[in-house]
Amino acid sequence: MRLVEFSWPVRVYYEDTDAGGIVYYANYLKFCERARTEWLRAAGVEQDVWLAQGIGFVVRHVALDLQAPARFNDTLTVTVEPKRIRRASIECQQQVFNAAGELLCVADVKAACVNLHTMKPVAIPGPILEVIGRGS
């Protein structure tokens, strides 16, 4: 299976903004997290099933490049583009666009697959790899 880009719509709520009415920078991380969850769900991966088995994904590294502000009530599109899938981790680039198509934020995210009891890395289960594809 080839790696493909996925997108998810997000609405900016009042709670997402600071006193100036622009999105507080940390909320871009939440938007990206939601999009990655929906990317997995669209691929048929329900994380609660794996959580019940003690397997989960945790963010190990993230880099944000904020390029323009989003504001209260904006509609955004958050993309997920898997760049590399390794034995125990997934690296994605995510982008956030406003309704006019302006790039607002770029996030490079590395998520590790871990045993939730030991918090040690484990191989991504085969059924997950089958549906999300393999990177180089």
UniProtKB/TrEMBL annotation:
The major lineage groups are: Bacteria, Pseudomonadati, Pseudomonadota, Gammaproteobacteria, Alteromonadales
Q: Which UniProt keywords apply?
A: Hydrolase
For the keyword Amino-acid biosynthesis, the answer is: no
Question: Which is an annotated GO molecular function term of this record?
Answer: fatty acyl-CoA hydrolase activity
The name on file for this protein is Tol-pal system-associated acyl-CoA thioesterase
- State the organism named in the record: Aliidiomarina halalkaliphila
Q: Report the superkingdom from the record.
A: Bacteria
InterPro entries per UniProt? 4-hydroxybenzoyl-CoA_TE, HotDog_dom_sf, Tol-Pal_acyl-CoA_thioesterase, YbgC/YbaW
What Gene3D superfamilies does its record include?
Answer: Hotdog Thioesterase (3.10.129.10)
Family membership? Belongs to the 4-hydroxybenzoyl-CoA thioesterase family.
Any one Pfam family here would be 4HBT_2
